[in-house]
Every structure is written in C-alpha cells, then in structure tokens.
Amino acid sequence: MTPQTETTLRFTGGYPPFPVIAIAFGLAFVMWFLYRRELKFVSSRFAKVPALLRSLAVFILVLALAGPVLRHVTTLRQLGRVVIAVDSSASMQLTDDNGNKSAKPRFQRAEDLLLKGTTPLLKKLAETQDVELVALRGNNTQRLWWHRQNGKDTSGELPTAFELPPTTPITNLDQTLRAALGPATTGTALVVLTDGQHNTTGSPEEFSTAVKGNGTSIFTIGFGTEVPPPDLSLLDVNAPESVFSKENFQGRLSINDSMPAGIPATVRIESQGKVLWKRDFTTDGKGEKTFDFLFPVAELPPPTPGQRDKTLRSVNIQVAASGDRASLEKTRANNARELAIHLLEKKRKVLIVDGRPRWETRYIHNHFDRDERWQATLLFDDMADDASKGSLQKNFPKTRDDLLSYDLLILGDAALNRFKAENLDWIVEFVEKRGGGLILIDGQRGKLRDWASGKTASLIPVKFGASSAKNLTSSIELTTDGQRFDALRLSDSPSANTTLWPTLPKINWHSTIEPLPAAITLAKAQQPTIVFRQVGAGAVLYLGTDELWRWRFQVADLYHQRLWMQLGAWIAAPPFQIDQKKLSVGTDRLRYSPGEASEIRVRVRNDKGDIVTDAQPRAYLLHDGNEVATLQLEADSTHVGVYRALTPPLKAGTYEIVVAESPSTPRSDARLSLHVSDLGNPEWATLTMNRPLLETMAQNSGGRFLREEQAATDLPNLLQTLDRKQVITKETILWSSWWWFGAAILLLTIEWLMRKQLKLV
Q1: What pTM value is reported for the model?
Q2: Which of 75, 590, 724, 742 has the fewest C-beta atoms lying within 10 Å of its C-beta?
Q3: What's the CA gap between 632 and 331, in Å, rounded?
C-alpha cells in the first residue's frame, strides 16, 4: 500500500474557502477602521493592540459562523495483479509465413513481445502492476518470473528469454490457467498468450465465466494466422475402445482439408501392413470432413510373436495426399494416429428390475443398451395375482451364480413379496460379498419401504418418513460431499457443475427420508435425495425420485445419459481384465493417450473365496520388460476390498502390470497389458489460431481479445483499470469546537483590559 494524503478546508453549506476568508478579512478591516480615531488620544506604543485584537476576534467569529471543516483524504493504492501465461505447446513452434520465409515461430514472437525492445512490455507492466510470468506446459504450469510489491518481492532480474522449448504435446487452457491464477481476488487480470488450440479435457469457456464472478478479467493475446495453410490433418477418431471378436469394428474419422481443390487423397486403416479399410477422395479445401468406417474384427492380424496379451490389437490410421501437388502440404506430422483395440469375451452386465414401466427405468435401459461396454437386462413386474406365475419371477436369474455374474443391479419401485426368498438372499450376497453395485430408485407407490426391514434391511441406506412430498416442484442441488464425486459431474468444470444442477428441470415429487449413520448425502431437493453408503464389499446408491428423466427436456440425453452412465460405472463392481480365484487385476480404461495416468485396481480373496479387506497389494509397472514404477495400492473408499493406485504419466508404448498380494509375497504370474496409443501430435491437427475460443474467453470474463500486434500498445492501458484504491476520508469539524469561541472571548477580554489600562473606557 502506498498512502497519499491531501488536506483541504471547506465550509458547511458549500461555501468556497476564498470568499469566506475575504469577507472575514473585510469585516476585520472595517473593525480596525472604526477604532482608528482613538489612536490620536493615546501616545503609548501599545495603542494599536486593542483594535488589532478586536479585528482578530471578528475574523475568528466570521470563520466560525461559516462552519469550517478540515478534510483529510488519504488514498491507499495497491498495485493490480497481472498473471501472464505463455502457451509453450508444440503448436507455438509453427510459423505463419504468409509468403515470408524469414518469419519467426509463434513462441519466438511471444518472447519478443514480452522481453525484447527498448522497454519490454513485461518491464512496462511491472512498473505499474504486480506481475507474475508463467508458462503453460501441457497440464501443468511453470513459474518463470515474478515482480511484486514494487520490487520488494521478486524472483530476480527481468529475464531476457523464456529458456524452455515449446514442445508439450497438448494445450490445456482450463486446468493450467486455474493453477496459474490461484485464489482469484478483485483487481486481478489473466493475460494469456496463445494460439487457442485447447485440445484436452476441461472447458475454457466455463472457466472464463466462473472467474468473472471473482473480479478477474482475462485478456487473450492471439498468435497465428486465421487463414488455413495448405494441409491435411487427422482431427479425431471416434471408435469404441473394445469390441467382441465376432463383431464388426466401426467408428468415424474426422479430417481437416485446407488443401487446394482437386488433389487426390486417401484415408485408410491398416495393421501390420494389412489394409483393413480405405477411402479415396479429392481435396476441396472446405475444412472438416467425416468418414464412417467398418471392418470385421476377424480381419485383424494375429498378435505379434511374444505378445502376452492376446486380446490387444493395434491399428494405424493415416490420411495422405498424392500426386505432384502433395508437397504443398504444410506438415505431415498431423496425418497419422495409432489406435488400440481390445477384444472382449464378455461385457459388463446390468440388471434393471422395476415394479412397473416407468419413464426413468425405460430411459436408463436405453442408455445402457446402446453402450457397447454393457449388456442390459430389463424386468418389469406384470403384477399377476400369483407372484410365482408373474413375469418377474419367471425372468429373474434362475440361479445364484446367474445373479452374481452381474456387475450392477438397478432396483426400482418393486414390491418385496414379488420375489422369492432365495432371490432376496442372492441380492444381499451380490452386494455384501460379491461386491456388486446396487442403485435404488424410489417411486410414489412406496414399495421400497418394505425392503427396509427383514433380511434386506442392510441394503437400504435411509430411514423412510411418513409420506412422500408430491406436487412440490423443487430443484436438485449438490451437497458439499456430492461436489467431490466425479460420477455427479455434468460439466468439465467443477465450479460450473455445482451451479448447473439447480438450473436443470425441477422434479415434482420426492420421498421423505433420513440418511442412516455412515450414509453420505450427495444431493438435496429441499431434503436428502441422493444418498450413498457402503454395504459390505459393495456400494449402494439411493435416489429419492424417479423424475430425473425430466432433464431430457430440449437437450435429450445430454445430461441424463451422462449421469446414469457415470453412476453405473461408479457403483457397479469394478471391472477386472484378469479375474482369478484369489487375485483380480484391472484398469479404469482400456485405451490411454500419452501423458495420461492409468488407475490400477486390485482385489484379493482368501482360499475360501472371501474378499480380503486388510490386504497390502503392490503393483509393478513394466515398460519393454523394464520396471519403471512400484505402486503401493490404497483401499478404495467406494468398494470394500478393492485397492487402487495411479501410475505416473505414461508414454506411448505397451506396458505390463504385475501384482503381488503383499510386499512380502512373490509376484503373480498373471500380467495385464496396458497400451498407450501414439495419437500423433494433436497440437498440429489445426494450424490456425482459434479466435472464436479466445474471444469467448475474453468476453465471458469482461476482458478483451487482442491480436499480437495490438498487445504492446493496448494492453498497458487496459490493465490500468486494475489498480485497487482505498480512499479514507476524515473530517475535523472546526466550527463546533469551543476553542474558536474561547479564542474570540480571550481576545476580547485582553482587548477590554488593555483599553481600560490605556484609559480608553
């Protein structure tokens, strides 16, 4: 804080100081003039003092009657905080020559803008602001320099170069900017120098909207051309990560075509030199194109010699121009991508049971049925007079093993007495011992209330109230606990997700319940609506309403499908690619990209087949036969008896996971393969600046978008508004002080005494 104090005199009523003082001087002079005739009768050298004292008293009284106020204005100025983030991804290596062969790469131009010149822009900003310089490195940030509190807190002299290469394979304009900004405060600006090629998870648009509420503005400085250079690039591959060996493998390819029209080109999929699918086309320079592909899985070449995991295959996808004009292409580093395919023997299984065909369960069944990773079975109770002859008992799994083969059970508003006694025993065992997942969807008929007593009581995580709340529309809001669970994430931004839930269509009824001890309330609609609890080795999720299907209004499956697929994957028994009698090993996904981490899951059973809850398993990560990491697994907070660990960020290639039941036991012979596909370089999929994204980020936050050539002149002026000023005003009311009147009375008293001494009275 730099204090600046200004003291001024004013008078009540708004009178300006100068006229009031002039009037006071005038009246004082008049008083002096009236008493001047007395001086000719007095020869004392003090003869003029009484008249002077009376004039001074009049001067003081006039000022006092005008109401003088002494005003002290102190301004405390704190420098604005400016965080400058420089994109150091691989796309910043590109040059935008536009015919100029001596053009510099984007990253070099950003360096010149900030650090070069007679008065570098970074130095100019540091003179008036608190400045922090960071580099965006993939999913991480790296602090380069800072200068705060007028230089009292600085990392050293102004750098002359960034001293790091622009080589990171992805750009993340959400996670990295959150880390660079830290706790946002009023008077903070985020200046981002980038070409805007966000190509990973997260939403920069949602981030920029959220920071505006914290008083932070984003100023985006765009680098790169907006005119696409001649190029062919593979933008995206949308295909399942696993497929059954007797099915077809199908998906969709997206490519970008900015080549001159009329050049022959080909997009193809091959494996080990064998072409599995091919499509010829002619370039037209009109931008994005999509191609649907399909080929039989049986045509995939067999595993390579020595490959342990026989279910893993790898294909290469490539787009290429041919002919004399193919050399016009800007770069060929964005033309190919590798894709891993896992051949499955079985899908994850979900059993959906409801007392009647409700909208919620029908939509849920459709979601799971359309997902190639799941096999969904739907059962409704036809309410036959004799339950043993009804469709529910007829179609329910016939044996205990049949039911235990499922991973997830979704139980709706079904009456307890419609199930056989042995069915109920199997359901309890499915959750408590097998570690299966159970999702309960309550209904207005209140059939789940009977499940809260007897042998199934342990499965119900809530205590039911007297009745349900009907015809009372209310929104569902996440609790603090619910905000922590990714399964309830409907937006890539955590803050945006929290604000999104209450805006979704309201529900018209919900049950009246109270969570039991150890249960966690994840969402509320005036009272607890989504409740979670561990039950034995499994997990149970209770939903106090069956009207989430209303979220489909005008947006179809956007939120409803995403929520249910995430809930299913979370609550269901964790999948294990290796599932042996005593040891099960699996990963959270089957396909990874370079730089991502894999979550390893392990479950240990004893000789009797019971889940071990106090195990200490350890996992070993091998790459090309060499051990690269040793991982101590920790207990899963959702599924008892399951242990998890995250690997370090993975490079492209094939890994093997070996597990030991404890640090003192030998490693298992079972090995799980993990393949990280080479996706090419997504940084070069699009070679132009993403101006729409940068303009949206700036507009959402209340900032400005600037091209690189505008930044040096416009940015300092725009950032001047960030200074935080605190004005403290203190007024001393002089006219109400007895000192003024005391001084006047004292002067008049002395004047009267002197006049008496001089025999003037």
Answers
A1: 0.63
A2: 742
A3: 44
What does each C-alpha distance from 524 to 106, 158, 441, 732, 752 come to in angstroms? Answer: 49, 52, 15, 55, 85
Q: Scan for tokens 């090993």, then name that residue.
A: 585
The string of pLDDT tens digits covering residues 306-328 is: 776 777 888 999 999 999 999 99
What are the backbone dihedrals phi and psi of residue 423, each rounded to the nearest 5 degrees, phi first? -60, -40
Residue 76, pLDDT score: 53
Distance separating alpha carbons of residues 594 and 679, to the nearest angstrom: 8
Element (H, E) at 282: strand 274-282
User: Among the listed ranges 12-21, 591-600, 701-710, which one has the minimum average pLDDT value?
Assistant: 12-21
CA dist., res. 510 & res. 480, Å (int):
20
Please enumerate in sequence order all residues whose Cβ is within 8 A of that of 543, keeping only pairs 6 or more positions apart, or say none: 439, 440, 441, 442, 529, 530
Question: What type of residue is 717?
Answer: N
Which of 158, 178, 191 has its CA nearest to residue 87? 191
pLDDT tens per residue, range 435-481: 889 999 999 888 999 999 889 999 999 999 876 656 678 899 999 99
Residues 186, 189, 190, 191: what is their CA dihedral angle, to the nearest 10 degrees?
180
Q: Cα angle vertex 3, ends 69, 9, to 5°?
A: 15
**Distance in angstroms between the alpha carbons of the first and the last residue of the chain:** 62
Q: Are strands 705-707 and 216-222 parallel, antiparallel or unpaired?
A: parallel
Query: Which structure tokens are listed for 396?
Result: 């329910």
